[in-house]
Amino acid sequence: MKPAAVQEFFRRLSAANPEPRSELEYVNPYTLLVAVVLSAQATDVGVNKATGPLFKIVTTPEQMVALGEEGLRQYIKTIGLFNTKAKNVIRLSELLIERHGGEVPRDREALEQLPGVGRKTANVVLNVAFGEETIAVDTHIFRVGNRTGLAPGKTPDAVEAKLLKAVPKLYRRHAHHWLILHGRYVCKARKPDCPICPVADLCAFKDKVIA
Predict the structure, then answer these.
(1) Which residues are catalytic?
(2) What's the pTM?
(3) Architecture category of domain 29-130 in CATH
(4) Assigned CATH for 3-20+134-202
């Protein structure tokens, strides 16, 4: 996609939703981090159902450690891989206390050293909690980047690198939310909703059906 088309692509998404927000519910950077770790291979809706009651009693690493792994499991047992996730959340909470004074670090390397935190999770936390211009490539963004021709790549890292080069500075902070929401609700995996797509004329998808 040419730079002028990319600019117009994001101008339209921005006009439709000027201040996009994460659909994960959270209270502070710590609860955001926990929610994102829990969201791996799970839906935001499913995570929010579990964390609603949890975040009424736990909003700090200290409170999470006090709750303990077994206590946490009772809240998140409806989420896939909940045993592993409970273990990771308790351990990352302990490490936040040990290494960072109970605060979530604004540092990619430090975040990625926490259990259950990979590049995508770190990108979400840096963007949503701290306003950094990162792009977390999930399945939706990977699909949209490739399908539209916006940022084709064979791996999430390749798509991320292309997006960081292609997205105009003006739109970089919110780009990842616009693309996730677009992929989730319009440019869907099995049947993209091309007739209602605001950027259909800019898209390189060969099989798009406008009518």
Answers:
(1) 120, 138
(2) 0.89
(3) Orthogonal Bundle (1.10)
(4) 1.10.1670.10
Q: Tell me, what amino acid is at 11?
A: R
Question: Within the chain, which residue ranges are assigned CATH 1.10.340.30?
Answer: 29-130
| Helices (H) then strands (E): counts for the chain | 10, 0
Q: Which residue is it, tokens 């605001």? A: 198
Per-residue pLDDT of the chain (211 residues; tens, 9 = 90+): 899 999 999 999 999 999 999 899 999 999 999 999 999 888 899 999 999 999 999 999 999 999 999 999 999 999 989 999 999 999 999 999 999 999 999 999 999 999 999 999 999 999 999 999 999 999 999 999 999 999 999 999 999 999 999 999 999 999 999 999 999 999 999 999 999 999 999 999 988 877 6
Distance CA 34, CA 55 (A): 10
